[in-house]
Each structure stands twice: as C-alpha cells, then as structure tokens.
Write a structure and sequence with these properties.
Shape: rod-shaped
Number of strands: 22
Low-confidence stretches: none
Oligomer: single chain
Helix content: 25-40%
Bound molecules: zinc ion
Radius of gyration: 42 Å
Strand content: 25-35%
CATH topology of the largest domain: TIM Barrel
CATH architecture of the largest domain: Alpha-Beta Barrel
CATH class of the largest domain: Alpha Beta
Mean pLDDT: 94
C-alpha cells in the first residue's frame, strides 16, 4: 500500500471516529455542551384549552406561562389570534415559543367559542301604563332594544297593539324582538281607555247590601240610566240571588266587601281575611257567573279598628290585593250614612252634592244599601236628579278606573 493511501484511510477513520464521537455527544450530551440548543420550551395554559364564552362581554384570556429549561420565558411567547365577542363562532388563539437559540418551536392552541344565549333587552319609552279618555288620540312612544352581541335592535322591534280609543277598556301594546341567535324578548305597555274626564263621571258605591233597599236603588239607577258599584256582604246573598243577577244584567259592578263584616274575625290575620273574602267572591261567581275584581275593606283601608285584632294588618292586606287579582277602592266623598240609621235625607244629599261638585279626578261616593238605610235611598233619588241635571253621569267601577286609596293607618 502506498504511503498516501494509508494517510487517506487514517484521516477517514479519524473523521468517522470524530463524527461518531460528536453524534454520541449530541445524543447523550453528558457534558451539557448542547443543552441550550436542545432545550424544548414548555408552554402551560391557564384555564381550559376549550373555552365557551357568552358574547357581548370583552374576552379575557386566562393567561399562560412558559419555561425553557427551568427558566421563565413567559414574556417571549408570541400570541396570535383574537376573539371578537360581537360575533358568535369559533376562534383559535395560538401561543408559540422557540428556545433561547431560536430552535424547537412549540405551539399550543386554545379554542374559544363565542355563543349568544342572552336575550335582547327591550326598554319601553315613556310610561308603561298610559291612561286616556275615550276618543283621545293614542300615539305610541315606541321602545328600544339592545342586544349584547347584535347591538341596537330597535329597528327590528315588532309592535302589536290592541288599543281602541273608541271604547273604554284595558288594552296592551306588545313589543317583541329577536337577536340573530334567536333569543327573543317581549315587553308590554298597558293602555287604559276610560270615560274619566275631570270629575264629570261620578262613581256611586253601596256597601253592606244586598237588601230590599238595593232593589229601590236599582230602580232609581235604571230611571236615570246610571250605573253603580255594589260592595256586597256575602252573608246577605242567600235569598237575594235575584238582586245580584239583576245588578249584572243592568250593567252594575258587583264588588266584594266581606262575608261576615265581623272586624274581630276578618282582621284577626291576613289568612282569615282572605278566606272570608274568597268565600264571598266564590259565592258571587256562583250566582252571577262573574268573578269580582274590585273589593273594599270593611272600614276602608284607613281603618284603625283592625289594630285591635292584628297590628299592621292593613299594611299587609293592601299590598296583597294585586296577588289576589283585586283592585281595592276606598272613597273620597262620604254621604255620611255610616254615622247612624236614619241620618236625614237632606244632610246626606248636601254631603254628596258638595262632594261631587269638588270635581275630584275620580269621585267615588260612599253609601250603604243595607236594610236600615232608608234615607240613603231617598238621598240617591235627589242626587241622581240634581247631578244629572248639572251634567254629571254615573258609571260603575271597573279595573279601568284609577283606584282611590286612603292612607293606611295600621
Ligand atoms: Zn261595610
């Protein structure tokens, strides 16, 4: 073998040995020479890798941490991708990092889904309860709608209205809207069309009947084409069913006063009161087919006698009427017939006429049609004649009439 060939072979072997040594060193790196090159970054996501978030609120990433070979490298992480919570859908955020020698790229992804399960919010402009007189013009004030994801949806609001200003009644305007995700919302405005016009409509009310006097009062009302409200006592109904039927037939309102009119019993507890009240209501319903929605507290809501039996009961009862589907009425004009039996007709008449001429917004006159109130019947005749001649008309209370409430004293 030539000398030059020997040298070449020796060099090749040396190179192979060197390469093998390098590869072994690289592979096992026992002296840690290539540690920095070989280091693999570690990215740890805080929170879940799959996040479902409700649209509308700004997206806040739960964050991440990164380490390279035990050294914190969080601030080297590159974050790509963003979440637009004004648009539902799937988003990806990518967190990537190389080691300190810009090698070994590591990427971690987080999937974010923006959903929309929140209904829009409708705001009714102006009053949610509007009162009008028959014949008045109704202009709806409209509504606005806002959705967390879709923004302003006011233009998409659908309005349905039952308002008929030609006829007195309780009407509704319904506003409805849906967002792109199909969540819907509804709001309602109540429109009450009433006959009320600055005291020209008077509401005569009779408590404690029915009795034989009630028939005389019904005859008088008929004569003047007038309507009234009868706050009946349930225990007086048996035997007088025909009177109640006639009241309904002739357009009067039957309202609930009490069953027993026994203060000690009905004002002993709210439960006792409602039990007594419902007994009367059910009886009226049974006799007339109509369920009363108006009531009056014996003694009025302002009575203090109830405090002898249950402290604070009137405060409780007056807040419970709505949940029992009632409106309660007190009065602002007193005939004075509660002061005794046989109060002179003239006195009752003067009390009532002066009260009516006060032109209360809602004049509600208190009278009694129990058997001992004969002078009341005579006074009704005089009032109907005089007030009708002065241009007043008489109507029955219903839920379209603004309630007249006393102050509560117990
Ligand atoms: Zn009474």
């Amino acid at each position: 073998m030539k000398k030059s060939v020997k040298i070449t072979v020796a060099v090749l072997i040396a190179l192979c040995v060197a390469l093998a040594a390098f590869l072994l060193l690289w592979q096992f790196d026992v002296f840690g020479i290539f540690k920095e090159y070989k280091a693999v970054p570690v990215i740890t996501l805080a929170g879940s890798k799959k996040i479902v978030t409700e649209g509308g609120e700004p997206y806040e990433d739960p964050g991440y941490k990164a380490e390279i070979d035990g050294v914190d490298a969080t601030d080297r992480v590159k974050v790509e991708g963003s979440v637009d919570t004004r648009k539902t859908g799937d988003y990806v955020i990518t967190y990537s990092l190389t080691n300190f020698k810009d090698r070994n790229l590591v990427s971690v992804q987080r999937a974010v889904t923006v959903t929309d399960n929140t209904a829009p919010v409708i705001s009714v402009k102006g009053d949610k309860k509007v009162r009008l007189m028959v014949g008045a013009e109704y202009n709806d004030a409209g509504a606005t709608a806002a959705d967390k994801v879709d923004g302003d949806l006011s233009k998409n609001i659908k309005i349905e209205s039952t308002v008929n200003t030609a006829e007195k009644g309780k009407y509704t305007v319904t506003y409805s809207v849906s967002d792109k995700a199909g969540n819907s919302a509804k709001a309602v405005r109540e429109v009450i069309v009433s006959k009320l016009s600055a005291g020209s409509v008077v509401y005569l009310t009779f408590d404690d009947g029915p009795s034989e006097n009630t028939i005389k009062i019904l005859d008088l009302l008929k004569k003047y084409d007038a309507h009234a409200t009868f706050f009946v006592v349930g225990s007086n109904i048996p035997g007088n069913e025909a009177i109640l039927k006639r009241m309904v037939k002739e357009g009067h309102t039957i309202a609930v006063h009490t069953y027993t009119h026994d203060y000690a019993a009905i004002y002993s507890s709210p439960e006792a009161f409602w039990k007594d009240n419902e007994k009367t209501r059910n009886l009226v319903k049974k006799v007339t087919g109509k369920t009363p929605v108006i009531m009056r507290f014996p003694g009025g809501a302002s009575n203090t006698v109830s405090a002898d039996y249950c402290k604070g009961i009137m405060s409780t009862l007056t807040t419970q009427t709505k949940s029992h589907n009632y409106e309660y009425f007190d009065w602002n004009i007193s005939s004075g017939d509660a002061e005794g039996d046989g109060v002179p007709t003239k006195s009752l008449y003067v009390n009532m006429m002066s009260g009516i001429r006060e032109n209360y917004e809602t004049p509600v006159v208190l009278m009694h049609d129990s058997g001992a109130k004969g002078t009341t019947v005579q006074a009704v005749a005089l009032v109907l004649k005089k007030a009708t001649a002065e241009g007043y008309s008489f109507d029955a209370l219903d839920e379209t009439v603004p309630a007249v409430h006393h102050g509560v004293n117990n």
